[in-house]
Amino acid sequence: MSALPLPLKTMCDLACEASLLPRVRMAIAVVAQEVFRETADTPGYPLRWNLAKTVLSPTQEQAASMMVGLIVSPALLAVAAAADTTDPAAMAAAISDEQLLDAIRAGWNAVSGVAPAPAVEAQQGTT
C-alpha cells in the first residue's frame, strides 16, 4: 500500500476547514440539479435521484459528513498535497470549484448506494 500524500491530521484539518464547507454545500446542490436532468435509464438512477432529492438543500451536517469522503478522494488529496502547506485554509483555497464539483460527481454513486458495474459490463461498454 502506498504512503498517504498528507498526514491524517492534515487531512482532518482540511475536512474541518470552515472556508471549504459553504463551497461543498453549493457544489452538492449543483450536482443534485445535474442528477435531476439525467434520464431514467441512467444506471442507478433511482438511488442517484433519491440522493439528489435528499441533499438538494444540503444542511451543514450533510455537507460536513460528505466533506471527509471528498477530502480523501484521490483528486482532492493530490491538490491539497501539491499546495505544499499544512494550513487548511490555504489547502482549501488551492481546490478549484471545478475540482470540487468533479470530486462530488465522482463519488455520487457510492454515496447514493449505487453498486459499481461488474467488470464484464464495464469491459463490454469499452469494446
Domain module count: 1
**Largest sheet data:** none
What's the total helix number?
8
Bin the strand percentage: under 5%
Distance between the first and last residues' Cα: 31 Å
The value of Rg in angstroms is 16 Å
What sequence of helices (H) and strands (E) makes up the elements?
Answer: HHHHHHHH
Based on CA inertia axes, which overall geometry fits? globular
pLDDT < 50 stretches: none
The count of DSSP E runs of length 2 or more, i.e. the number of strands, is 0
Q: What structural category characterises the helix and strand content?
A: mainly alpha
Average pLDDT metric = 89
What is shown here, in short?
With 127 residues, this protein is mostly helical. It contains 8 helices and no strands. It has one domain (8-126).
Give an overview in words:
- The protein is mostly helical and about 130 residues long.
- The protein has one domain.
- The chain is about 70% helix and about 0% strand.
- It is built from eight helices and no strands.
- The protein has helices spanning about 10-15, 20-35, 45-55, 60-70, 75-80, 90-95, 95-110, 120-125.
What structural keywords apply?
single chain, mainly alpha, 127 residues, globular, 69% helix
Write the layout of secondary structure elements.
Elements: H1 8-15, H2 21-36, H3 45-55, H4 60-71, H5 74-82, H6 88-94, H7 97-112, H8 119-126
Helix pairs in contact: 1-4, 1-6, 2-3, 2-4, 2-7, 3-7
